[in-house]
Design goal:
With about 120 residues, this protein is α+β, with helices and mostly antiparallel strands. The chain contains two helices and ten strands.
Amino acid sequence: MKAIIDVKVKDLERAIEFYTEKLGLSCRHKDKEWAAIKVGDAEIHLYLHAGITSGLEFYVDDLDNEVKKLKKKGVDFFSNKKMVNFISVDKNQITTFPWGRNAFFKDSEGNQLALVKDFE
């Protein structure tokens, strides 16, 4: 079984460029209505007319390093101290929660994404 997450986009070409160029993922399929972006054994389907706009998270082994890499590619990170279970936020906008650390950012379409590293 393979997971697929549908993400709503406004501009398909711009979204494909963000997910491939900024996040370093590969595009498996593209047509005029949607594209399939490979993420390990799963896929993100970018749709013009359907999909989520928040809640997509990427688990990473080295959160600090991944944030540095994406910042170099122009990705801006943010935090929200009003989030449930918020503990703190550091200078790189990495937010600490009781279960781990998250780095929140938006894709080219304004969808909220996050890099996640759970406490072990």
